[in-house]
Each structure stands twice: as structure tokens, then as C-alpha cells.
Amino acid sequence: MRWGSSALALAAVLFSTHVYADPLQKSEDIVKFFAGQGNLGASRGICVGTEEECKSKAEKNEAPPQKAGLDMMINFALDSAQLDQTARAELDEFAKALKDNRLSTFSFVVEGHTDATGTDSYNQGLSQRRAQSVAAFLEANGVQSARLEAIGLGKSHPRVANPYDPVNRRVEMRIRTE
């Protein structure tokens, strides 16, 4: 599947981390992107890897590693579930988008993650607190709690190969397809 340049640009922003300081995505752009995504079957996704790896997979007709839906990622400081100013600004725009009538039928999974620092038990709890922190912020900004499912996944799904990389300390939000 080929994505248009505007969809790729939006995907790049929605996958942003604070480390890279991508510009804030506006709620109207989020609404426009998701409003056309009513059926996000397994054939849609974003390839995670280098450009060369993704092209190679596409040429071989291999499915890239993916989850159903599109991720929006919020990063955290080490050993923290506190939302920083950047995260609050991003989530404020996301909350505005979720309150738009065009997205009223969508529900989201809010997945908390950690890096590999700490025990499995501690990381599981921290990842759950991160997911709940994001869900609570969205709820406080008018998103119905029934549309959000907060789950903690600990360190079990690193975003990058280095399990201690700060990019792994995150919450990802994606459309719930079930």
C-alpha cells in the first residue's frame, strides 16, 4: 500500500517524540486524518525500520510490523508518569480532535510502556500509571472515559532495539478496532 505525502507527513508527526521536537499537530489535521479511517483493517499500517528496510519489505510483498490503526506517542521522563508541557500541549490537541463529531464513533487504546530500567513488576505498574495519566488528562479535557482503554504493557514492547532508549518510555494511542 502506498501512502500519499500528506498522510506520511501526518504519520511522521503523530509518531513524533519530544527528543526530535517535531511541530505540534493541530486538532483539525488529526480529525481530517482519522475521519477517513473508518475501517482500519489489518492491511493498513506503518513500517517501522529504515527507509531501505521498508522498501525491501514492500517489494517482497511482506507485511511490515504493525498494529491496526495509527499511533500517537507521548514520551515520559525516567521513572515518571507525569505529563510534561510538550505532552500536555499534544494531548490538548488530541482531546480537541476526539471531541469532534466526525470522530465520535472512535474509541482508543491508551498503551503505557517503559524502558528496561527496573524490575518487571515495577515497570508493569509504571506503564499502567502512564496510560492512566494520559487517559485522565483526556477525560479532564472532555473525552468520554468509555472511549478510552488504558493498559500497561511494561517493557515488553520496546519501540527501538536498545531497551534502555528513552523513546521506549511512552504512551501510544491507537484506534481500538475491536
Detailed description of the structure:
With 178 residues, this protein is α+β, with helices and mostly antiparallel strands. Helices cover 36% and strands 11% of the residues. The protein has 5 helices and 4 strands. Strands 1-4-2-3 form a 4-stranded mixed beta sheet. Helix 5 (120-140) links the parallel strand 2 and strand 3. Helix 2 (27-35) crosses helix 4 (85-99) and helix 4 (85-99) crosses helix 5 (120-140). The longest helix is centred in the last third of the chain and has 21 residues, at 120-140. The chain is globular and about 40 Å long. The chain starts with a helix and ends with a strand. Mean pLDDT is 76; it is low at 1-23, 39-46 and 61-71.
| Tally of alpha and pi helices | 5
The residue-averaged pLDDT reads: 76
| Element string (H = helix, E = strand) | HHHEHEHEE
Gap between N and C termini: 22 Å
- What is the global morphology? globular
Low-pLDDT runs: 1-23, 39-46, 61-71
Radius of gyration, taken over Cα atoms and rounded to an integer in Å? 16 Å
Strand order across the largest sheet: 1-4-2-3
